[in-house]
Write a structure and sequence with these properties.
The chain has 113 residues and is mostly beta strands. It contains one helix and seven strands. The longest helix is centred in the last third of the chain and has 16 residues.
Amino acid sequence: MQIPKITTAIPQRRYQLGDFAITVLGEVESGDERAYRYLLATVQDGKGEPCLYVAALKVAGSEEDTLRLIAPNMERDLDSSTAWRDLDHFCEQGISIVQQVLGLKDEQAHRLM
């Protein structure tokens, strides 16, 4: 997994999903070549580092952003759309992806912030 190298970011939302804390970051500046619009980081309770990311990546010269899953041993582009510019839509889809990947379909996400 190529971990995002975040230098600064502003938390936009926080959720609890079962044993996982989810933080959605905006205004992300990174030390890698990626331009993040939003970055959803998932941390298992008791752990210090995220185990899974969902990113809305800005694409130079395009109106559309790319939705990307970043997980251990896997990095995959899932979709390209202007919809990923909307924070609410990004959060909804990002949480759904986390539920699928981590097998948490029976858990409800509770917004904390």
